[in-house]
Amino acid sequence: MATVPKPVQNLIEAFERLPGIGPKTAQRLTYYLLHAPKEEAQILAKAAVEMREKTVICKTCFNIGEADPCQVCEDSARDLSVIAIVEDPLDVMALEKANYKGLYHVLHGVIAPLENIGPDEIHIKELLPRLRNGKVKEIILATNPTMEGEATAMYIQRLISTLGIKITRIARGLPVGSDLEYADETTLSRALEGRKEY
Known about the structure:
Elements: H1 6-16, H2 23-35, H3 38-54, E1 56-57, E2 64-65, H4 71-74, E3 79-86, H5 89-97, E4 102-106, H6 128-131, E5 138-141, H7 147-160, E6 166-169, H8 185-193
Parallel strand pairs: 3-4, 3-5, 5-6
Antiparallel strand pairs: 1-2
Helix pairs in contact: 1-2
């Protein structure tokens, strides 16, 4: 049986440590780079190093940016009266594509007791000073509709409910273009609960 050269095995193992990359995908990526022009591998390596060196976490909203405060927090055209609370920077990208124009607060996780992640391990307490200036009129709880996302949203709702700020939750239900017959019961029941006048 042929052995895999150590540098090839090292790259396969490095790819496997990335979320969502299994052994087969790690192998495909590695062998793709092995046969790709050397410049392509260098571009990938340089981009990864630059990403680590040239990005910072905004101390206001905890999004990732090139400067602190980030581009969103510095944008005077944003609606300063609304803050969407999201789990991670990928959620910011998704809301930006949906033309959301308010501010963000990125938690960098959710409350997950089974993984020993409590409120102090994510950026919840840093939200409170942002709400005391009187400018924020609405908080949008935009955590994922998982058990942990729901628990985190409920915790935040209880924490800030006495501040007199409107608290909303993103709607949940059927995705556009889907069929009722393929939806699970939880999705259907939430779609019914969140129905609006037509």
